[in-house]
Here is the input.
Amino acid sequence: MTAICFYFQIHQPFRLKNYRFFDIGNDHYYYDDFANDDIITRIAHKSYLPANEMLLDIIKANGKKFKVAFSISGTALEQLEQYVPEFIDSMKELAATGCVEFLSETYAHSLSALEDVEEFVAQVKAHDEKIYQLFGQKPKVFRNTELIYSDDIAAMVASMGFKGAITDGAKHILGWKSPNYLYNAASAPKLKLLLKNSKLSDDISFRFSNSEWASYPLTADKYIDWIASLPQEEQLVNLFMNYETFGELQPQQSGIFEFMKALPQFAAERNVQFWSPSEVISKLKPVSEMSVPSPISWADEARDTSAWLGNTLQQEAVKKLYSIGERVRLCQDKRIKQDWNYLQASDHFFYMSTKHNSDGNVHSHYSPYDSPYTAFTNYMNVLSDFMIRVEAQYPADIDNEELNALLLTIKNQEKEIQALHREVELMRNNIVKDLTGDFKDETTPAPKKEAKKTVTKKAAPKKTANKKKTTK
Here is the structure.
């Protein structure tokens, strides 16, 4: 028996407008609202909405036998709520079937796991709260930005309570091993790892409509035959891809929707099942541990982080951004908090890539800029203005020792506030602690209780007087 685990990524950044050097200090709004509205609306109607309808039809036709997972960034959800609210309703309908699992990730689709641990934890928490608010699920499996993963990240993810994570089955890490097994993290043995089968995933997401491909046309029965023909001990095929595969990367006229609808029928004939990531973790046991000393991802040929940190432009931009992380977390200004999230999106650094050949073509295809240098200049102009705003609240001349002291004070104040809240709650419930340490309900109103105490105190002198009188 072999299981297919489908996972789809949905992410859209808040794209920046043309921000000139002379705007620094004068214009604090950084976004191209027209482009953001146009792109998310176009992709949603061309891909996301029809794909949701397709999945709902498949689930209705196959009951609980067909399952998929989604990882949707917080920035994408915000744009969809604002510009395409019908998508949120559509996704809620899918969630209600019980056949759709939502994964955890960073809210801003950021590189915080590599640069700022505290920010990473805060973003994961914010993202999962957003997922619960919209879809009523608490994510159990973690998926980092662009499947970025390492032993250090595994330790952080495990410490946050996740039982599983998904990443890429990078060849330079696996070597002779197959991605079609469940593994566990070397740095956190209890954390189970699902690895992308790049070949079979890309057959759908990139090669499906390529008429020059040797296996063209790809049909559902042929595809299921490939999976069913895998060695019997290989029980798991993880198919991870962007949701734009359906309708955007692979046009609807290519037959991609019909291909997906036909998969369950042929899968059932060959005893191939569809599991969610949580099901995989609960049903399978890891075959061995996987050690990843340096970060990997699912991007570019190298499958590392060079797509975002491969040149000095990208490294300088990321370094400058995260240098103010502690100060931003001290701010209470909602606009600064919001901009901080939007400026962390990994896309901004992806546009600065100076790679060539096939990798370079992918970067330039998604970039709204004429060149990586234009992307860098525009971003740094925006970041300069943002840093001025942050510094106005928490000046750069405050050294790290003072800043840490300030952070400690704020944390202590938060603890005191929480203690006061608990005390107020106890008072609201009218509960007091008696002399033995037990709790009892206070039924007598406070004023009357005080009156009783007063009477008792008056009675004591009277008894003393009587004793003296008797002695005489």
Observations:
- The chain has 20 helices and twelve strands.
